[in-house]
Specification:
Blueprint lengths: L2 E5 L2 E4 L4 E8 L6 E8 L6 E6 L7 E2 L7 E6 L4 E6 L8 E9 L7 E2 L3 E6 L1
Parallel strand pairs: 2-11
Antiparallel strand pairs: 1-3, 3-8, 4-5, 4-9, 5-6, 7-8, 9-10, 9-11
Length: 119
């Protein structure tokens, strides 16, 4: 069973940057593909970015391409989301998720961290 804990959220002005972190415990981090999702008030949860278990194969939602970067440090059991040029529409609760490499659905989820971008 993998436990995921996000950190790094907060309040930032439009145009600013934040780096989210998600640290995993209770499993072998290197076998999991990792993803970031977000959910804004009144909206469904949406995919933001993902990265393969070995650090390759990054995928991004069109809305964040060129502004967000996902990375991971398997030695630290941590995945990151560097968010630059933030916009008010990036305001949401951001969730980290993990799935066994090769599977489709994410099985493990963190509790979320709030990101608020003021315009």
């Amino acid at each position: 069973q993998v436990q995921l804990v996000e950190s790094g959220g907060g309040l930032v002005q439009a145009g600013g940057s934040l780096r989210l972190s998600c640290t995993a415990s209770g499993g072998t981090f290197g076998v999991y593909d990792m993803g970031w999702f977000r959910q804004a008030p009144g909206k469904e949860r949406e995919f933001v970015a993902s990265i393969g278990s070995s650090g390759g194969g990054s995928v991004y939602a069109d809305s964040v391409k060129g502004r967000f970067t996902i990375s991971r440090d398997n030695a630290k059991n941590t995945v990151y989301l560097q968010m630059n040029s933030l916009k008010a529409e990036d305001t949401a609760v951001y969730y980290c998720a993990a799935k066994i490499r090769g599977l489709v659905e994410y099985n493990y989820w963190g509790q979320g961290t709030q990101v608020t971008v003021s315009s």
